[in-house]
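#struct-help
A.M.: can someone run this one for me? Single chain, 299 residues.
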Amino acid sequence: MSQKRLKDIHLRDPFILADDDSKKYYLYGSIGQNVWEGKAIGFDVYISEDLETWEGPLPAFRPSPEFWADRHFWAPEVYCLNSRYYMFASFKADHAGRATGVLVSDHPAGPFKPYVRALTPENWECLDGTLYIEDEKPWMVFCREWVEVKDGEMYAVRLLPDLSGPAGEPVLLFKASESKWAEGVGEGNENYVTDGPFLHVLKNGDLAMLWSTIGKSGYTMGLARSASGSVEGPWVQDQDPLFSENGGHGMLFTTFEGDLMLTIHQPNQHPNERPVIFKAFEKDQNLRIYMQGKEEKTC
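D.P.: on it. Structure tokens below:
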């Protein structure tokens, strides 16, 4: 098995699971080589003990010929619940709406097998579902794509306890244009992108959501906060983005030493996108990151 540094790993939408059982880190993402075109390979995983040297890629998921989707396998996120590992990911096929479904495995490296075809509404164009547990009840936050609704939307849907399906109707949380750091794209600048939600409770109890869009300098990631402390909101956007220089689709994880870390992909242009890891911390009720050894809130 080969060893790689992050700069040698071509992944978008990185997600890192710090697995308590193995005391290893597992890196997943959208495989960069065929993220846009061609038949999807599946999902790979890289494994590390120090976040610097990674072994892989290992095949975490390879679809069977009967699998319903054949392209745009995007943004896998893996969670350990009741000693099983659940992968939330986006899938697409002709004549079917893009959907977030669930795969399952007994090991963080897989092999993952299909569990739920779709947790998102039939015929909607959706992506980037992320799991959040509130009061012991599972929710999924996901994006409804701008390609369908123009002003990209963020939704939450409560799930059944075993994650086998939705337990209610999706709740609209906000639209991309509500953020001051979102820029319109396309003809007439009327399209606004929603990408990559990830929920995190700050030390002061605020429920915050990382999410990404297109800003003045390219791909941009910022924070929204729930005024009620609940996933149903209402959600208020921070005035300034957290990361504004052509990188995003971020998530937070805690190292085995207790350090809070942020991973994103940067830059956003194909085929140069790579996973990047920053040390994160909270200051003045804000999430901040270290850039090149310096404390930064935005960059």
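A.M.: thanks! The domain at 3-296 is CATH 2.115.10.20 (Tachylectin-2; Chain A).
D.P.: also worth noting: The longest helix spans residues 146-149.
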